[in-house]
Amino acid sequence: MSAELYMRRALLLARRAQGKTWPNPMVGAVLVRDGVVVGEGYHRKAGTAHAEVLALDAAGDKAAGADLYVTLEPCHCHGRTPPCTDKIQAAGVAQVFVGACDPNPRECGAGIEVLRAAGVEVHAGLLEAECMDLNRVYNRFIVDGRPFVRVKAACSLDGRMAPVSRDARWISGKEARVFAHRLRSVSQAVCVGLGTVLQDDPALDVRHLRGKNPAVVVLDSKLRTPPDAHLLKLDRKAPVWIYHCQDAPKARVAGLQAAGAELVRVPALDGRPDWLAVLRDLFGRGVYQLLVEGGAGVIGSLMEARLLDWLDLVLAPCLLGSNGVPVGIWDGPEKVASAPRLKAMRSRSLGPDLLVQGEVHWPEGGEA
């Protein structure tokens, strides 16, 4: 096998822990000696052994003189577990192939330098793009101190989430709905605006598959969410946070609090809760990936703020007309050259629908 194939095996292992390692990154490791895999492992959850340690333990004495393939640079700091660099040196590993550097300021290439200083040959950047993409959520909150923001929306081929009547059930098929619930299960919180609550009365829980319910975020500037909304009646075992920017009558506040909601006041921006203030508050509450499911005003305000990181757009094989509800209500760019674009865009079928997804790339400078 080639070096790339061993690293792809490490990536495959790392993905087994998707959604389970927060706030740590996903990491996979493969140990190879004389062309034979002698140990492998992946980080399962925060506080447990790192991928490199598990691979080295599995290899035992065979680790001496072996090559280690790891998707993220080995840590050199004492945290909840000892430094992986110490274990690698003690095992006598000959070479280390690293996929990506850790953007955490405590690491950021230091683990690689520690190994090189100890005489271990290190090759950095093997399948770097894939290894960076593996931890796009981790990279965002480590670098910017806010959650990774992912929008999931379903629309017609002419870009409408609902017809003029706003009757959107069901624009997409069952396979697409299962996909949406899978996204909820790996996100710490799911967000909608007041309009979606009033129009659709969603539960915003995880169905169709096993998984924990995410916390619910409602953007409601004037606290008009009904206390008997479905999302407040459900025993979700996760909080409901309503972000507002104006005072409301005491009776309305008391009713929402009695229904189990936590009210969070943030500054206003154009009459709506300021997205950056919301995201920073959510990050402090342990939200590392925020899934935004609508509606058009919420998605549009997110676009205006240039804070959308990833888009999952389900295209249904229908046409709803120019008077239907657009995917996002925002002014948009003045020129095509200034438009945000999907980086490394990919697509696949979800039953009768087409899923288009990718990282949102915002042009440098100017307006989006």
What does this structure look like?
The chain has 368 residues and is an alpha/beta fold. The protein has helices spanning 3-14, 51-59, 84-91, 110-117, 128-134, 136-144, 174-185, 194-200, 230-233, 250-258, 275-284, 296-304; strands at residues 28-33, 36-42, 67-72, 95-100, 121-124, 148-156, 160-162, 189-193, 215-219, 240-244, 261-265, 268-269, 272-273, 289-294, 310-316, 325-326, 341-350, 353-361. The strands form four sheets. It has a nine-stranded mixed β-sheet with strand order 11-10-9-8-14-6-15-18-17, sandwiched between helices. A five-stranded mixed β-sheet has the order 2-1-3-4-5, with helices on both faces. A two-stranded antiparallel ribbon has the order 7-16. α8 links the parallel β8 (189-193) and β9. The longest helix is centred in the first third of the chain and has 12 residues, at 3-14.
